[in-house]
Design goal:
alpha+beta, 8 helices, elongated
Length: 253
């Protein structure tokens, strides 16, 4: 039907009813407000990047510059298209946060066991206790954790230097020892944030994500509650919307 025919016949093309336009605008405004609020809270509650990470004997293991440069190495080599950090990324490779947390915790436990100590308990204490000093910008780790860091550095040097072709990594992906150290520092920091308890709380900076039994990193009740609530809200909202359109299919016009 042409525009002239519509005018002649007195019919107008259907348009959205005003309440639906107002509703869409309200949803957009509320949604943007929530996104901005969540972004602000995320920025405010972000875990600290220490100026340096030292052992209890004063030996510097890596620095805050190593952490930020390590993130740069991670992104520059497209490793998010291969593996994940905090569960974000691709799934060809491992989650490097979870991998570092698990493997280093096993090494720490073995070190304590070899000394005749209660390895399981000491490992939990090493990882859950937050030893970051905000005034000096220093994070203190145990000698066992320092040994684990070195072992993981060697592991990643082999993983990215001579990768198996089935992994999807390029041959000689990363061979510079300094970049390997920086990358290991970045993974170590993400593992620390996922296990060390946030000041004044009984859970980590990431709400104990990813989980790891060796350090008693278990999902918090709030995580489970809000995950279930968000899923229920999505299903109920979709059901209400479909019910309205099923009952009054011309309500929008």
């Amino acid at each position: 039907m042409t525009r002239q025919t519509e005018i002649t016949s007195g019919k107008r093309p259907p348009t959205l009813a005003r309440p639906w336009i107002q509703g869409a605008a309200l949803v957009t405004v509320v949604g943007m407000f929530v996104l901005i609020l969540m972004g602000f809270l995320t920025y405010r509650e972000t875990p600290p990047i220490p100026d340096k990470v030292v052992t209890t004997t004063g030996q510097t293991i890596y620095t805050g510059e190593d952490i930020t440069n390590g993130q740069g190495v991670f992104l520059a080599n497209g490793l998010m298209e291969y593996g994940t950090v905090y569960g974000q990324g691709a799934y060809l490779g491992p989650d490097f946060t979870a991998q570092y947390l698990h493997d280093s915790a096993e090494i720490v436990k073995a070190e304590y066991d070899a000394l005749g100590m209660d390895g399981a308990t000491r490992t939990v204490e090493d990882y859950r206790t937050n030893t970051y000093d905000a005034e000096t910008g220093t994070l203190t780790i145990s000698p066992a954790q320092a040994i684990a860091f070195e072992a993981m550095r060697v592991y990643y040097a082999d993983m990215f230097g001579t990768p198996e072709q089935k992994t999807g990594l390029l041959p000689n992906q990363i061979t510079d020892p300094e970049k390997i150290k920086q990358l290991t520092a970045y993974f170590a920091w993400t593992a620390w944030t996922s296990a060390a308890e946030r000041p004044g709380a009984s859970y980590s900076y990431t709400n104990n994500w990813p989980g790891e039994e060796l350090v008693e990193n278990e999902p918090t009740s709030d995580t489970v509650l809000w995950s279930a609530f968000s899923l229920i809200a999505l299903l109920v909202g979709a059901a209400i919307l479909f019910a309205i359109f099923g009952r009054w299919n011309n309500i929008a016009w």
